[in-house]
Amino acid sequence: MEDIDLDTLLAVIGNPTRRQILRKLVKEEHYPLQLSRELRVSQQAIMKHLDVLEKNELVQSVFQKSDTGGPPRRYYTATKSLTIVIDLGPELFNEELRLHGKGEDRVIEGVPDTSALRKAENLRIKLAEFMQSIARVNERLVELAEERDELIAVKKDAMHYANQIIDTLCDSYQERKVLRYLISEEDLSLATMSERLNMRESEIEEVLKKLEEHELLIVSR
Predict the structure, then answer these.
(1) How far apart are CA 28 and CA 42, in angstroms?
(2) Is the pTM value of this prediction over 0.90?
């Protein structure tokens, strides 16, 4: 299956129960009955949600032996690593899906594999070190989020005044639409502009020619 797209992802995780399931599975693998008890949702409903998540490769399931000697149980665990960014406000809209590499590809020096952990010494010290490391990362993420909020505010204000100038300089709706795209978006390929602006490439080329004649195309970039 190809990497999930943003529209599909939002449709899948738009359900609050599925988000609760993912919140559990990123911490530890669970079997359906556990999730049903933890979330106070019927096991039948849990299975339907897990099926949707697994079909979209957000979780995967494996059979493991039961600790109580019963038949093997199907356990579920989260699989995807990603970030969704959506900025929405006056003069501003941005949507982005970032897919990250799998966690197992990253090896931390000095950390034994799972099978060796039971034999390792000073695990409490190691745990304390990782807790401190996680705390520092969380603090840095908060700082970056605050810095990003400030940059978004600057961009929003700049877009507001830029749009006012565009309204003054351009009488044509098509010219305003293309010029606003040029000053706010990164992908300037004709194919992408045609898709996002709902315009034919030939129409965009004609508008770009007019903007160039008005010496606005150079200003925009």
Answers:
(1) 20
(2) no
